[in-house]
Amino acid sequence: MSYRTNLRATTACAFLISGSARAGEEAIRLVDGEARDLTATSCVTCHSLDYIQMNAPLMNRATWQKSVHKMIDKFGAPIAEGDAARIVDYLSEHYSAADSP
């Protein structure tokens, strides 16, 4: 396979994969509540919103706070401190396990 053909095939695969990921993202909607939109727009800049739902059974306020600050401190998420507090409040209220430590 020539370099050009390989490049076209790789580009086509990347396009198809990214298109299907975006299409699936539209189906995920966070629970209504104060700061839902802030949370969704802040989190989706780096990862899918299904990460919130997948991690919720393991999370409580302290672990959400640690996770949000890790996103800011380690990964450079552009979230102001006041917004981080609102995001933690939202996640703690709507996506925390009842029996999580």
General description of the model:
With 101 residues, the protein is mainly α. The chain has a domain of 66 residues: Cytochrome c-like domain (Cytochrome Bc1 Complex, Chain D, domain 2). Helix content is 63%, strand content 0%. The chain contains five helices and no strands. Helix 4 runs antiparallel to helix 5.
Give a topology summary:
Layout: H1 3-25, H2 36-43, H3 50-55, H4 61-73, H5 81-94
Q: In CATH's first tier, which class of one domain applies?
A: Mainly Alpha
Number of helices: 5
Helical content band: 55-70%
Strand content: under 5%
CATH homologous superfamily of one domain? Cytochrome c-like domain
- Give me the strand/helix succession: HHHHH
From the N-terminal CA to the C-terminal CA, the straight-line distance is 55 Å
Given the helix and strand composition, which structural class is it?
mainly alpha
User: Major β-sheet, in short?
Assistant: none
CATH architecture of one domain: Orthogonal Bundle
Radius of gyration, in Å, reads 17 Å
Low-confidence stretches: 12-23
Mean pLDDT: 81
- The CATH topology of one domain corresponds to Cytochrome Bc1 Complex, Chain D, domain 2
Q: How does the overall form come out from the CA principal axes?
A: globular
Beta strands, count: 0
